[in-house]
Amino acid sequence: MENSPWRIIFICAGASLFLLLIAYFFILPKKIISIDKIDKITSLKNAYMSGYNEGKKSWEFYATEGWSDKYQQITYLKDVSKGNLYEDGELITSNLSASTVKVFKRSKIVEAAGLEKKQLSANIAFTSKKNKEKRKFAGIKSNFLKYIPNDKRTELAGNINIKEKNIKISGEKMAIDHNEETAKIENNVKVIRSDISINCNILAYDSKQEKLNLFENITAKIKGKQKTKVKADNISFFLDDEKDININGNIELTQEKKNIVGNKAFYNKKENNIFFQDGTKAVIEKGGALLKEETTKKLKSPDAKNLLKEKTIIEANALNLSTKNGDVRAEGNVFVSQKGKEAKSDYADYSDLLEIITLTKNVYLKKDTDWIKCEKITVFVKDEIFEATGSIEAEFKLKIKD
After folding, report:
1. CB neighbour list of residue 255: distance below 8 Å, 6 or more residues apart
2. Across-strand partners of 154?
3. Does 99 map to a domain?
4. Domain stop point among 138, 172, 192
5. Residue 44 sits in a domain of what CATH number?
6. How far apart, in whole angstroms, are the C-alpha atoms of residue 220 and residue 202?
7. Could you tell me which of 160, 159, 188 has the C-alpha nearest to residue 176?
8. pLDDT for residue 28 is more than 80
9. Together in a domain, 171 and 296
10. Distance CA 320, CA 276 (A)
11. Terminal alpha carbon distance of the chain
12. Which GO terms describe its cellular component (predicted)?
C-alpha cells in the first residue's frame, strides 16, 4: 500500500501522454507543405501588381508570375514589363522591363535584373520632383538596377548603355542622384557623338545644365579628313553639339604630321577647329615622316629646344588647328625654329597641303646674334628652308646643309 500513490501518479502521467499523442495526430496536417510552397506565399500569375508608401504609389509592374516570401517582406516578380517607379508619388522611372524584380517591403528598395542576352531596359528621369514640368527621361539598358527611394537614388551596373538626344554613352557602373539632378558613370566609359568619340574612366553629368564632365585616362578621336587624337586631364561639353567642347590639362594632340601640346583648348564642331590658348607648342614633320609618342613628350619638356633640333617647332600664345584640312594659325609671340634657324612674329600660318609656314606682322629673323626685321618669312618644312623677304638688308635664303 505504500507504493499506491506512486502507482496512481504513473498511471495519470501515462494517460496524459496518451491524450497528447491523440491530439497531435488529429492536429497534424495530412499533407506536408513543400519548401517551394513555403518560399512562394501569395503567388499570382500574369498579373498587374503595385505597392504603396504612405498612401502614395511606390511601384507598379506587369509580371508573368509574382509571389512573396513566407515573412512577406520581399515581393518577387518574373518577366516584368511596363514597370513604373515613383518618387513620393511622382513618376521617376517608366516602362521598365526586366527578367526578375525584387521589392523589399521595409526599405521600399526595388532591384531589377536582366539576362545576358536580354538586358533590362527603362526610361529614367535625371531631374528631381520639383522640376517635374521639365522632367527629362533617358533610355537606359543595363544588367542590374537598384532604386533606393529613401535616398532618391538609382544605381545601375553591368554593360550600361544610354541614348540621349544625339549622343550615346556606355559604362559599367552608374549612380543617379534624382534630388541633386546629377549622375556619375564609371569604368570603361565611352561617349560617342557624330563628330567625336571619347574614352575615359569617369563621367559626371549635370542634368540642370545638360553638361558632361569626363576625367581619368581620357583619349578622344575627332572625325574629319584629318585623323585627330587627343589626350587630356579633363574634357567637358554640353549635349547641344553646337557649343564648344572644353579640353583642359596636359593636352597632347596628334594629327598626321603634327604634334601639339598645351593646357587649354576648345573644339568647335561647326567650325571644324581646335583652338589652343594660354601658350602652346607644335612640332611639324615632313610629309611621310612618322610621328612618335615620344615627340609629344619632348614638346612638354623644358628642354624641348635642345631635344627637337631636328624638328620644325612653332610656339605661340594661341593656336588654331583645322580638323578638316590640318592647317594651323598661330597668334601672339610666335616663335618658329628649324635646325638652328629661328624666326619670330605676331602671326604664322601653316598650310598642311603645301607644307609651308608663313610668318607675318612684326617679323624678325635671327642671324647670328642679331634679329633682322623682315616683311615676311616663309618656312619650307619639307626642304628645310627659311626664306625672308622685304628685310631692311636684302632678300636671302637660309638652308642648313646636312
Report:
1. 226, 227, 228, 229, 321, 323, 326
2. 147, 176
3. yes
4. 192
5. 2.60.450.10
6. 14
7. 160
8. no
9. no
10. 6
11. 137
12. cell outer membrane; outer membrane-bounded periplasmic space
